[in-house]
Each structure stands twice: as C-alpha cells, then as structure tokens.
Amino acid sequence: MNNIKNGIIYFGFNNPLKHKRGVENVILFQSDSLEDNFDKYYIFFDNEDNEFIWENINCISIKHNFLRFYKLNRIVKKLSKKKIFLIHSHNYLMSFFLLRKTDIFTVHDGLYYMSSQSNHKLKNVFKLIEKVVYKKVVLTHFISRFSKNTSLYKKNKFIIIYNTTPLEKIYFMPKYKNINDSKLRLFTVRSIEERANIDLLVNLAEENKNYDITIAGKGPLLSHYRNLIEEKKILNIRLLGYIEDEKVRENYSLCDLVIVLSKYGEGFGLPIIEGYLHNKPVFASNVCAIPEVIIDKKFLIADDTLDISTKINEYFKKKNSYDFIKYYNENFLYDKILKEYNVMYTSYMMNKMEKVEKFDQEFNFYFSKFNTSFVTY
Asked: What is the distance between the alpha carbons of residues 217 and 372, in angstroms, rounded to a whole number?
C-alpha cells in the first residue's frame, strides 16, 4: 500500500475496558492484521460519551440514548473528511442506521437466526434489518460456514475466515495442577446467558462430586446462577465473573479439560481453540459451528449429564493421545489468521483506492473540459 495514512472504523458492542470477550477479541486481532499506515477507531454504545486508547485503537463510546445513531453518523462523517476510511462493522443496528455503506461486515450469528431461536417478539423486524444491512454492505465476512448458512445473506461477495485468539499473545507464568488433587478440573469461558446452558453445568457438578468446575465470564444470568449454586449448596462449581486475560490463561493451564456447552447461537466457539492453545481436550455441544471447529467428533457431547460424564471418563481412562497444540497451530494460529485478514484488507483497500483515483481522474477531466469551454466562450 502507499504511505498515505488511511483509517478503519470498527462498529462493535461493548466497552473493551469493561468487557473484552467474543466480538471485542475478534476486533482486536482484526485490527492487529493491519499495517502501520492505518488509523484505527472502535465505536460502541455505552452509558456515557467518552474517548480513550485501547491496544493502539482509538475508542469512542456513544451514550446509549435516542441520539446515538445521529451521533454515530456525525462522528463517521467527521473522521472520513480527510482520509479514506473503511467501515468494518460487527453491529447490525449501527450498519442499518448508518447513512453510508458499510465496507466490510462480520457475521458472528445471523440476526434473524438468533431471534428465531429465542422466539423474540421482534424477530420479523430483525429479519428486515438483517436483509437491509446485507444490501448496504460491500463485502461480508463470516466466521464459519455455519454462520454463513444460517444467515439471510444471498449474494456471492463474501469470505469465510475462522477466528484465532489474542490470548496467544498474552504472557503468563504457567501453573500446574497439584498432583495430590484427585478432582477432575473442568474450565470454560462463557457469556452467562440462557443459550450457554449453565443449568447443565450446575447439574453436572451436583451429580459428579469428583468434578471441580470453574466458569469465567459475565452476563445477565450471573447473579441468578450464583444464587442457585448457593441455595443448592454445591461446593464444586464456581462462577468467577469477568477476569483478566492473564487469569484466563492461568485457569486454562490448571484445568484438566475445557467444556463448552451451548443450546444455539454458537457461530464459532472461541473457548474451544483456546483450550487447544493450552493443549487441553475440549468437550463441546454437538450444535451450530462447533462440529466445524472440534478436533474429533468423539469430543461432541449431547445435552445430557450422563453422556458428558461418560465421554469424559472414557477419554481419561484410555489416555488418548491427541496433539491439540498442533491442531491449533495448523488451523487457528494467530499469525496465520492475521495473514488472511491482511490479504482481505489489502485487496479491498487497493480496490477502493483505485475506484477513488478513477473517480478523481474522471472528475478532473470533465472539470477541465468544462473550464476550457467556459474560458473559450
């Protein structure tokens, strides 16, 4: 690319200083794939208007009120005045209300698919929004074949690039399980909501006292499940809430296995590859995109505590030898995925700049013809 400092604006959901999981992690490694001649911005809705720097990204929070979409368009217009900016969105509503086209849109889960799974009363409104957004998008990126197949996207200008995890770049001192600890340690990172099937993990802990289950992550049902565990007096399961990346890696290093449960809406399954990064077996629900990502179908589990405990116990009894790190490196390595994103951005930006340059040339040509004619007259 040239030496002109261009820019990219990401649309997301959460303040990364308060909540950095899922979409925020994806935005982080997407931006990391860009060359140094990009100014990077991340816009999201929060409880106040604010600006700060996060991981070399200029973050702009917009207060969540009825003026938020007006402010969004005003900020984008202001940023785009002097440079060529790409808009890379992860947020359907932001792209829907944006007055210009979205250059690249990342689909984690189709909006209509998600609302249909939960039987949301506005699912038909979401269906309309999703269809309109795809018409306003130049290039659509899907994080899995599953997210593509369950979306309402019908055009052919799309790309599928799997996720990686920024945890790979987080330094930590590995810790190891105490050999005198006879309990089997299970760990997972989940958003604590209905689709994460936390009830099943609670039942699993209640039925298997030799399991020690740790869940990291926050969400709308965090207090509900903490109260449930306390009421049932289950001592071998805990919900940590949000924890920093170093603590996440520490828990991965201490566990015996990673478990990822889901009812629906799992467009990829980031904790699965994070488990492989730490050379841990991962047992996950046989739904959504998970079969795409899992190392072997033997690790897919049903929505049933007996099936889960049976497969876990069989795995450790047989001492199967899987090279989980090798599988991660071959398919989800940070540098490998970043190269794929860099190719996407570079080719898109070159195409965009060629169109701008062509427009400028045509404009200058017709303007000079007009000016010459005017002077002659």
From this structure: 67
